């Protein structure tokens, strides 16, 4: 079993989580560990292996490190990349910089690897805890009744799943958003797309080709090439046995019907005309690729319904661009934050029984919204930094092209932060100062080491101070 950082008594709250991605699974696991009853509904009929490279940053690794290490951390570590640095080139192959790997830390580990491998580990951990995961349950509609104090969903088959709250972790085309916002909100094209692939290096001839074997001959590597409005990243994993690449480029295609479809290798090669021959050699040896249209969305006005018994989480609330390297991590933070707010609200004697869930959901949004919004901006900032680089200035200061690793983002401890801010943030109408929101370099999070006990004992007047 996991070793939580505090004791969380049973709450009896019934939580219905829609979606078994990283955010949904984390929310369910954290809810279970913090004393809530939970069920997951997932539309796919069987567990499927999807995706390619993904990153779990230290801010999210902190959450996972508090789970059973033999079932999570040890397995993730065996599957992830073990490279030394991120090597950056210009598009024609000139070396620019080696950015060292983020310093290892068992309490705040960073994992880079195949999405399906990582997802399987967390899925199996949820199963080991006995969390019900109902596959093949496609949710048709979301509902809630403030008088009854309940929320529920109805599936395509007419099944009803009711709880004290419903968590919409159903992705970028979330149906939960209609109940939350009161209207249909569709994603729009970001103006960019990504060709992406993951395959066996030896079977594709990567290990023997003089142009490509350097990326696998001595273990895992992480390499990037930056060009005019395009970047090409290559990563090798499992001791150089597997290789993946992504090519981000301009694309104004309509995403009304689909944002992921089979790609054409010849189209990728056209984008990389005149690039480092090593890039083209890797693509030429690729058996197949996916054409993934990047969607975007302006920040939603709210993640919770007016009655605060249904909330959004992960991509349903805030889709991220891959260049943020935070999409999965922020979904994991969401799950931890929500479960912690529910536990603290249940234990808080100043919150009335009928307001336990609404207070928790309002505080969840209050403490997550600005942080997520600032983290989302990193995606566009990094993309523009790479795609519009002034190479004269970059050669004068190569450090300017590095991936940002700001402390407020990477060192955040979601659970401790929520616990420390609960007393002030849970007060209706309390205006939170920016330094309290862990949303930028002005964050005061690292000034504090203490953590309040559970349950918080302050009376209402003290909470307002």
From TrEMBL:
It holds the Pfam family FAD_binding_3. The keyword Oxidoreductase applies. It comes from the Eukaryota. Residues 14-180 form the FAD-binding domain. Keywords: FAD, Flavoprotein, Monooxygenase, Oxidoreductase. InterPro entries: FAD-bd, FAD-dep_Monooxygenase_BioMet, FAD/NAD-bd_sf. GO terms for molecular function: FAD binding; monooxygenase activity. Belongs to the paxM FAD-dependent monooxygenase family. This is Similar to 3-hydroxybenzoate 6-hydroxylase 1 acc. no. Q9F131.
């Amino acid at each position: 079993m996991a070793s939580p950082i505090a004791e969380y008594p049973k709450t009896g709250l019934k939580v219905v989580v829609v979606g078994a991605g990283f955010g949904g699974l984390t929310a369910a696991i954290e809810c279970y560990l913090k004393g809530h009853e939970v069920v997951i509904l997932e539309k796919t009929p069987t567990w499927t292996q999807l995706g390619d490279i993904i990153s779990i940053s230290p801010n999210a690794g902190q959450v996972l490190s508090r789970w059973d290490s033999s079932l999570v951390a040890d397995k993730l570590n065996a599957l992830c990349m073990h490279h030394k640095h991120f090597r950056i080139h210009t598009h024609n192959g000139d070396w620019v910089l080696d950015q060292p790997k983020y310093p290892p830390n068992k309490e705040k580990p960073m994992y880079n690897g195949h999405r399906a491998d990582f997802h399987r580990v967390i899925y199996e951990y949820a199963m080991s805890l006995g969390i019900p995961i109902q596959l093949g349950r496609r949710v048709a509609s979301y509902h809630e009744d403030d008088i009854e104090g309940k929320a529920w969903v109805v599936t395509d088959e007419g099944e009803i799943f009711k709880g004290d709250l419903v968590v919409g972790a159903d992705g970028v085309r979330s149906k939960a958003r209609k109940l939350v916002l009161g209207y249909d909100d569709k994603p729009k094209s970001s103006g960019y797309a990504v060709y992406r692939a993951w395959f066996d290096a030896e079977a594709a001839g990567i290990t023997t080709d003089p142009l490509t074997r350097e990326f696998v001959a001595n273990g895992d590597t992480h390499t990037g090439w930056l060009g005019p409005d395009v970047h090409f990243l290559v990563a090798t994993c499992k001791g150089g046995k597997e290789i993946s690449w992504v090519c981000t480029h301009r694309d104004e295609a309509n995403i009304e019907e689909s944002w992921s479809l089979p790609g054409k290798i010849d189209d990728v090669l056209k984008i990389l005309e005149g690039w480092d021959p090593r890039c083209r050699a890797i693509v030429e040896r690729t058996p197949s690729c996916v054409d993934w249209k990047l969607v975007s969305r302006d920040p939603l006005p709210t993640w919770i319904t007016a009655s605060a018994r249904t909330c959004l989480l992960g991509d349903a609330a805030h889709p991220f661009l891959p260049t943020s390297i935070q999409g999965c991590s922020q979904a994991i933070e969401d799950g931890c934050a929500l479960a912690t707010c529910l536990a603290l609200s249940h234990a808080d004697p100043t919150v009335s029984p009928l307001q336990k869930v609404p207070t928790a959901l309002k505080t969840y949004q209050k403490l997550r919204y600005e942080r997520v919004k600032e983290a989302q901006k990193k995606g566009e900032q990094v993309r523009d930094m790479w795609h519009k680089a002034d190479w004269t200035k970059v050669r004068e200061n190569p450090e300017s092209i590095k991936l940002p690793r700001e402390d407020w983002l990477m060192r955040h401890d979601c659970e401790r932060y929520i616990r420390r801010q609960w007393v002030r943030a849970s007060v209706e109408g309390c205006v939170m100062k920016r330094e309290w929101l862990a949303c930028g370099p002005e964050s005061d999070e690292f000034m504090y080491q203490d953590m309040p006990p559970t349950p918080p004992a302050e009376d209402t007047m003290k909470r307002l101070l």
